[in-house]
Structure formats: structure tokens, C-alpha cells
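C-alpha cells in:
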């Protein structure tokens, strides 16, 4: 009976899933960058902008959002040099368009951003925080037509993160 209860709790998100594979953030992002660089559906000469990571339940940019964008950009530069748009250029384009990182997914904004930033693809995603883990989903979207070309989901133990990075009150940690 205890095993059935534990399994049910895991299925609804309360507790560690049996056989769950946890990674470090660095390993997860390095492997994700390698998968993006090697993916057959992603054109080899496409320019990529890493932008728009949000916590999925609150739709807020916690400090982890910037860390994900910066670290994934760095690992992508290692795996696909000359194809990643610099963050300061992305910020300049967003200011010029007077849009936020959240507004970039509107079709009109996405296309304008792509033209001004000289980007073919947006690499973005979301993450959510539960009792024991942080689940991060990375997506690659074609700017011109909005098609998703790639998605990868990773799980990282919540204990690996500083509380302030997650924006979680200490009583919830």
C-alpha cells in the first residue's frame, strides 16, 4: 500500500519519481546546447537569439531566467560558434522595439525582432519549481513561421539552487 501511495504522490508531483534523472545545471545546459547544435531540423547556418525564459506558473522573470539565458548562450557559443546573437545586441533591439522579453512571442514582434537582431531562431523556454526539483524546458522556435524545431526538458534538484536565484521565500524552500 505504501508503494502505491508513493507512486500516486509522484504522479501528481509530490515526491521524487522512481528512476528520475537529475542533473546539474551546467551538465543539463551543456547537453542541451550540444543537442541544439547537432539537431537535423535546425539549419546549420541559422543565427540564434537566446531570450525569454520565464517561470511558468507566475510568468515572472526570476534571477534564474537571466542565468539560464546567459549560461545557455555561453554553451551554445562553444558548440556552434558564430551563430549566437550577443545578449547586449538582443537588449538593444528590444529597447529599440520598445518590447519586453515577454512580448517577443507575439507574431509581429517576433518577426520584427528577427529582422533587427539578424536572428533566424529564438531559443527560449520556461521552468517551474516544485517541492524537490526545478524543471527546465528549452525550446527552439523559427522566427519566420513560429514553428517549434526542438524541445528539451531537464530536471535539477532544487537544493542545487540558491534561494534568491529562484525567487522563492525561505519558508517555502
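Residues out:
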Amino acid at each position: 500500500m505504501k508503494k502505491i501511495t508513493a507512486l500516486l504522490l509522484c504522479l501528481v508531483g509530490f515526491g521524487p519519481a522512481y528512476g528520475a534523472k537529475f542533473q546539474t545545471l551546467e551538465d543539463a545546459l551543456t547537453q542541451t546546447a550540444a543537442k541544439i547544435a547537432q539537431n537535423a531540423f535546425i539549419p546549420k547556418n541559422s543565427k540564434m537569439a537566446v531570450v525569454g525564459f520565464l517561470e511558468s506558473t507566475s510568468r515572472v522573470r526570476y534571477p534564474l531566467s537571466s542565468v539560464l539565458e546567459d549560461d545557455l548562450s555561453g554553451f551554445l557559443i562553444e558548440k556552434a560558434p558564430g551563430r549566437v546573437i550577443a545578449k547586449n545586441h538582443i537588449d538593444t533591439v528590444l529597447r529599440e522595439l520598445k518590447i519586453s522579453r515577454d512580448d517577443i512571442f507575439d507574431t509581429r514582434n517576433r518577426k520584427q525582432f528577427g529582422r533587427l537582431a539578424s536572428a533566424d531562431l529564438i531559443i527560449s523556454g520556461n521552468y517551474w519549481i516544485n517541492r524537490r526539483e526545478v524543471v527546465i524546458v528549452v525550446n527552439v522556435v523559427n522566427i519566420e513561421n513560429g514553428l517549434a524545431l526542438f524541445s528539451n526538458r531537464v530536471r535539477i534538484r532544487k537544493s542545487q539552487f540558491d534561494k534568491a536565484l529562484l525567487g522563492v521565500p525561505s519558508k517555502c524552500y
